[in-house]
Design goal:
two-stranded parallel ribbon; mainly beta; 127 residues; 1 helix
């Protein structure tokens, strides 16, 4: 998961985040900063949540997040400065239950793959 999370860090200008302790360190990725309770990871070691709301993320959501399709259940990236459009690879996140993107600067069409997120129960963002 290091590659996916490192790509996310660089794509969203992690060095300028308000808070990013542990990111890109030698520590296990499960221990890197996450605004949610506990770690990024589920008991089986997969990245289950990415909660970085209101942290001054800037730039694009990288398509590599789609590689977390087997594990990611919650993604809260609201109240940031994310731009461009949502990558279609997000449609591969079929275990995603909660997806928050409101209060960003996203533009472009909403990807058609949103309909593939069959587990999605909560979505906050532009339509």
């Amino acid at each position: 998961f290091f590659y996916i999370l490192a790509t996310f860090y660089f794509s969203t200008k992690g060095k300028d985040w308000d808070y990013s302790p542990g990111w890109l360190s030698d520590d296990n990725e499960c221990n890197w900063f996450n605004r949610g309770e506990g770690s990024f990871c589920s008991s089986d070691g997969g990245v289950s949540n990415l909660i970085l709301y209101s942290n001054h993320l800037q730039g694009e959501i990288p398509p590599e997040l789609g590689l977390l399709s087997d594990s990611l259940e919650m993604m809260e990236l609201d109240v940031n400065v994310l731009t461009e459009s949502i990558p279609s690879q997000v449609g591969l996140l079929t275990n995603l239950i909660e997806f928050k993107l409101d209060q960003n600067e996203l533009r472009g069409p909403l990807f058609t793959e949103l309909g593939k997120l069959t587990s999605l129960r909560k979505y906050l963002g532009a339509l």
